[in-house]
Amino acid sequence: MTSKKTLPVLAVAGATVAALAITGTAHAGAQPHQHAGHHGPARSFDRVATYPVFQNRPAGEDPATETVAEISAVSADGRTLIYTDAAARRIGFLDISRPGKPRGLGTLSLAQLGDAEDEPTSVAVVGRYVLVVVNTSASYTDPSGRLDIIELATRKRVRSLDLGGQPDSIAISADERYAAIAIENERDEEATPPGGKKGDLPQAPAGFVQIIDLPGSNPHRWTLRTVPLTGADGRALPALAAAGIVEPTDPEPEYVTINRRNQLAVTLQENNGIVLVDLPTGRITSVFSAGTASVTRIDTAKDGVIDLTGSITDVPREPDAVAWLDDRYLATANEGDWRGGTRGWTVFDSRTGRVAWDAGNSFEWLAVRHGLHNEDRAGKKGTEPEGIAVAEYNGIRYAFVGSERSNFIAVYDVSKPTAPVFKQMLATTNGPEGLLPIPSRGLLAVSSETDEADANVRASVTLYQLGKAAPGFPSIVSGPDATGAPIGWGALGALSAAPKQPHLLYSVTDAAYAKTQIFTIDVRRNPAVIIKALPVRDERGEPVGYDAEGIFARPQGGFWLAVEGATGPGNKLVRVDAAGVTRQVVPLPADVAPGLGKQGFEGVTATTDKRGREIVWAVLQREVATDPAGVVRIGRYDVSAGTWSWFGYRLERTSVPGDSMGLSEVTVVGDRLAVIERDKLNGPAAAVKRIYTVELPTGPAALGPLRVLPKRLALDVLPALRADNGWTQEKLEGLTVAGNGQVYAITDNDGVQDATGETVLLRLGPSAKVFGRR
């Protein structure tokens, strides 16, 4: 046995390549690469279906019951997908014969095979059998598990194998001669070992690897072989100790992968190491540390600000998933665990154990550029790259790297393993866990494990197909700032046209961020590009955090912002100048503000007559307590007179428990006001995402009861929101008609909190078509 120790990686920074089509600066001097060498039309993966797995629940089960999709496998013909549902203690089956219309085929409860508390941790397919890895542990100190072999056609168990410990992942060799299972025997994060701290290693019993020999197609002939990762007496193996493994007496194997030479790679996540095993002999052939990395220009503080000036120094990679790029190079997703996590992924040379390439900050920059940066996780492990998978499609080898916390898959061309080339981003639902390439059908399946019915966040299986068409995601990205880093953005809940600049729009951040910014968006490109960020300041010139829900760019210069308050009196209109400094604050009238809760101002627009008289129009999201049920207010503020008057707008009704209707935006279209009216629902439950118009009153409202303005449906936006086959977004909140005559709408991604984080910028067509000629 031999062992190799990896040298630490020194400060790895990001790079600006082709308008921030980020590929990152690699370790050991390698430079970012553009795609080259593969001729023919460009091909991209595009999302074709998103299937919420609660729809595949057993008959009679409450649809709000937690049910997840964690790890998935596929039948030999690529038409039946099998996923683990650890939350509900079962596995599920989907028919993906028609990728655009996956169909639930039901589930198999592990309670039928063993105990109600049995938990599936992984799944694989060999021939006509499904191999289900099951955790049956009574406790951390008494770990156990089994492998259930299920005939796919009948869903009958044909055999079980005792694994001798608590299992995690499984891998099958390409020739189907071997399976390998990581027996983790994971640590108890609440336990304190002698002389250590809470959650520390070592915690007996030690983990190991099980090899399953698969001679022929008869599961009754399959046999187990154990690969110990510690000595028979519990002491450290010399190879692990020499490699600098953190605690070699408690290796905790996490993830397994097999190359075409039947070499097994095993990550020891908590121990920051990788072990290589020759499957035919069961010999450990190499052990090396995953090393450390120092990464600069990343966001390291949870402070409500996307600030790419932080750094981490000499942090252990602590890799989770691992995948072979070819028979020599392997790649790790460096999620981290208790001491580390370097916010990227790394390519190792298995012959030397040395780093051949490292993503540095580029993986995190991708999240920022695509509006998927999870500021809530900035102080911890950032994007937390957890999953990685590699497969060849049409002669090109791709690596797929999944971000658990920012809900995306980054796709790379790894035809040259030491110089990965970033190709595209794929948006997912929350907590992408299982990455399953299905190259025989040109598909990629991603299973997501986060399921919170109360927040309308549901676990799903998403399918992507490789084709020649341009992908639907992203629809908007950011360009570089003055330092070359991507402009940080998110929570775009408003839109305004830019006066005299027909291809520019403005948007503004809301309370998802501590400091308000106004963004300039160039829509001449697809995806549209945020080209500038303007900080908003208070009257003293200090940065300010408004909950800005509406924006209007004034022809006279500067902007009106509609600012929502935590209470009714906190709502206000704010006028800022072209430099972003607050110049005027207009509170809600004292007779209106007390009747509002936290759903106040949501949109703002303005008109200016030939005499220069400016009238500001603003909408309230929900009813004022003193108004009739179902009627919300549209406000008219005469700037020179300093007076308010109000008109009514009648909302649609909703019958879904807990749902409510509200207004999200207002903009002037000719002689009418266009508003967004929407429900609070998302995903398959979303029902009302519409644009209506009402007359533009020519003067102030008369005294007395609110005059309800008759409304007219202009456009049902729901089909457009569903056209990209993703999770239908809830917060359709921005609307404007640009100077080029085109209608644009945008969704608020809530700063990636209790939402998938995907932002959808919709190009709805010419104003004359959407609203009719006037």
TrEMBL record:
Q: Which residues form the Phytase-like domain?
A: 488-750
Domain of life, per UniProt, equals Bacteria
What keywords tag this UniProt record?
Answer: Signal
Q: Which residues form the signal peptide?
A: 1-28
Looking at the record, the residues that make up the Choice-of-anchor I domain are 341-424
Task: List the PANTHER family hit by this protein, alphabetically.
Answer: MESENCHYME-SPECIFIC CELL SURFACE GLYCOPROTEIN
Q: What is this protein called?
A: Alkaline phosphatase
Q: Native species of this protein? A: Micromonospora maris
